[in-house]
Specification:
This protein is mainly alpha-helical and 310 residues long. It contains ten helices and no strands.
């Protein structure tokens, strides 16, 4: 099956409650847009969680593998080579599972589809004739052409009357990004503390090992070889933990998410100010829509690069 067919199959099989674009009653003409949005939004969140869980498991398995190999090497527990083999097999299975589930692609592309549908909903409310599919950035048309096909297949999107989109779109989206920014900054702060603490602990253990080698190891002390082995195992394991934590948090790209939220807040603030002064003109709404799509396109490209280079 191609990517469009996969989404349509998952949408038809999806039978859980979904989010709605607005909290108020959905316009009858836009119910299908809202339905597809809800499924795309839920599937994007679901696949994003799967992707993050797999990354976490890969980091944990990598650390455990390093620890077991150090035990095998330093303590000559030869039976642990079998355990190392099991962990290598787990890593291979996780990588295979990542390819099979295709959760990172689905997380990104379903999010792009959901946001395009959300935008179409508000353009329809504002009685704007231009469709989202007509103003999609070229990078999205070329990279995710099945989304263009979905948008082209949408039913009639015109409402009977024009509605104000100041509160339900511009203000609500500004508030959403403000809340998301606060949460992301807290999470980013916690992640930085964890990364910093593991680095400090690793450096501290290194200096302990250095002092041990320079001033203690040559003296006749009981069990000194055991102490040396323990230091080597702990230092090697902490180095692995630092490496895998850095890789895991790097793929979370929280700093980029913070910048994205800040840009969107400024965009919606500017739009809100212009609407209050000049009213909800079609030119202003389309300008905002294009900026919104360009931000989504930039986010999609960045997330793809992070996955390929980390």
């Amino acid at each position: 099956m191609n990517q469009k067919e996969i989404f349509l199959q998952e949408m038809n099989n999806f039978n859980h409650p979904t989010a709605s674009i607005v909290e108020t009653e959905i316009e009858p003409a836009l119910k299908e847009i809202n339905r597809i949005y809800g499924v795309a939004d839920s599937l994007s969140i679901k696949n994003g969680n799967k992707h993050r869980n797999i990354l976490l498991l890969l980091s944990i398995c990598g650390t455990i593998l390093t620890f077991m190999f150090l035990l095998y090497d330093e303590l000559e527990f030869y039976g642990l080579i079998i355990a190392c083999g099991v962990m290598v097999l787990c890593l291979l299975l996780l990588n295979s599972l990542t390819d099979k589930l295709d959760c990172h692609r689905k997380y990104l592309q379903y999010r792009i589809l959901a946001e395009a549908l959300r935008l179409q909903y508000f353009l329809s409310l504002a009685f704007v004739d231009t469709r989202v599919v007509d103003i999609l950035p070229w990078s999205l048309r070329k990279g995710i052409n099945w989304i263009e096909e979905i948008l082209n297949s949408l039913p009639q999107t015109k409402t009977e009357n024009k509605h104000s989109i100041l509160q339900c779109w511009i203000v609500d989206q500004r508030k959403y990004h403000e809340r998301a920014l606060a949460k992301t900054e807290v999470k980013n702060s916690k992640d930085k503390i964890i990364s910093k603490m593991t680095t400090i602990i690793t450096i501290a253990i290194y200096f302990v090992a250095l002092l041990f080698e320079l001033f203690v190891y040559n003296y006749e002390i009981a069990n000194i070889s055991v102490i040396r082995i323990i230091l080597k195992i702990v230092l090697g394991t902490m180095s692995a933990i630092t490496l895998f934590i850095g890789s895991y948090y790097g793929k979370m790209s929280l700093s980029s998410a913070i910048d994205d939220h800040k840009r969107m807040i400024e965009l919606y603030k500017k739009a809100q100010h212009e609407v209050i002064i000049n009213g909800e003109s079609e030119e202003l709404i389309l300008s905002l829509a294009r900026e919104f799509l360009n931000e989504n396109s930039a986010w999609y490209s960045y997330q793809q690069k992070i996955e390929q280079t980390s």
